[in-house]
Amino acid sequence: MTEQNNQCFFYAKAHILPMKDGEKFNVLLNENQAMAFGITSEDKVSLMRANKEKFVADVVLSSDIEEGTIGIYHETEERFGVHEGEEFSIKFAEAKALTNEAIRKKMKGEELTYEEMYSIIKDISRGRLSEIMMTYYVASSFFYPTTDEEMYQTAKAMAETGVTFKYPEGEIIADKHCIGGVPGNETTMIIIPIIASLGIKIPKNFSKAITSPAATGECVNVLMNINFDKKGIENLIEENNCCLVRGGALDLAPADDKIIKVQYPLSMQSRAKVVSSIMAKKYAMGVTHSLIDIPMGPTAKVKTMEEALDWKQKFEFVGTKLGMKMTVQITEANEVIGNGVGAVLQVREVLRVLQQHEKRPADLEKKAIFLASRLIEIVGKAQGDDAISLAKKQLESGEARKMMQKIIKAQGGNPDINSEDLKLGKESFDVVAPKSGKVTAIDLHNINYIARHLGCPAINEAGLYLYKKIGDEVKEGEILYTIYANDPAKLESGKEQVAAQPAYTIE
């Protein structure tokens, strides 16, 4: 045992193990030697090489590995270039005392200072907190209400512990975000080229779908590459005033992904944490003017006006504190927006709107124009009806389509792609009306379930195309919608779901 800087550590030589360590970043230590230093299987250790490079790993204990040896799994060997026999100094990687004390305060319902919040988020992002300590921190959000100030502090700390984008002072950087919960609601891919074609910078990053049949990530990936590093994104913005990229590889708000993993098993995520997560990524991207879309409807994620107003207040508070000009829009979500559900089907709808195709969905186009006009207003380009006219003009003149073609080309896709060129699932089935009457409701939950049984979001070509909307008269045997899949088994699974949980109510 050696004493250095008041930290106890020991030396061990690497032994490369012929197996992988899975999702975690693990190392194998001799059980007796580790426990002599107070290291258990619930802890993390800090490993320092001869060149002073350090990394943190989770611990696996074993009596089969010799003292003075550290087992290095194959993935760890590849990631850090570790070689057989390389010597490391190893010590207990305890989170800072400030972080531990801050979590204790949080567990007791006490308010944290920004320094304390930053310490927690920084230690999470750098892998210094064990899963147990992270769980305590996350669970505390359900025991005590999160204050508006804490939401702001969390968002700021999340952004400042990861990659951030900087622009000249006073430059407008716009952004549009929807909290989700409505199938087919792909307005982002229409709004971005509308706004960018007006000379306004609007860099858009997104994640992939978790619960929806297809999020913006799946849709954009149908047409172009979505994975770029920071320099690549900066080049895209310089070239076209915008980008459509996945944020996962950027290390934006890195603590967020780790917190989500802790929440995922119970499918629990507090509203405050969602707001902090979203706004952290906006702040990290340098956004100055932000539009948030909150769809509200009986089977949407947000079901009541009371919920919607609470979301709105939280977004406005955090965004304003972060220095952004905000517009939060509560929009109607009683049915699918557009007609397509699933990545390719939704992209076809987007392209039809941009092309001003005769089959373009009027409701999707109308919503995209409305939301674009709200962004146009807050950036000061036009107001009221003039803002709506300007957004509409960019579509009708073809300027928005030209901008989308530039985006696609810059991101490695085919700029000449036509909406009618897109291939749908090879297997299809028409769902017909069981009786005559009027469509009185469309259950968005059931639409999502059917889409998932068909293979969404993993299979881009899978999904549904709806022919009837709420209020439409239908006759018995008339087609309500068509389902698509890439193989007969998925199609049968979708048909079973259609029978078990019908999407349409006809009266």
Give descriptors for this structure.
507 residues; Barwin-like endoglucanases; six-stranded mixed β-barrel; alpha/beta; Pyrimidine Nucleoside Phosphorylase, Chain A, domain 2; four-stranded antiparallel β-sheet; 4 domains; single chain; disordered N terminus; 18 helices; 20% strand
Question: What is shown here, in short?
Answer:
This protein has helices spanning 31-36, 74-80, 97-107, 114-125, 131-143, 148-160, 188-196, 216-223, 230-240, 254-263, 271-284, 305-321, 343-355, 362-378, 384-396, 399-410, 444-454, 488-500; strands spanning 2-4, 7-16, 26-30, 44-48, 54-62, 69-72, 87-92, 174-178, 202-206, 242-246, 289-296, 325-332, 340-341, 427-432, 437-442, 463-466, 473-474, 479-485, 504-506. The chain is of the alpha/beta class.
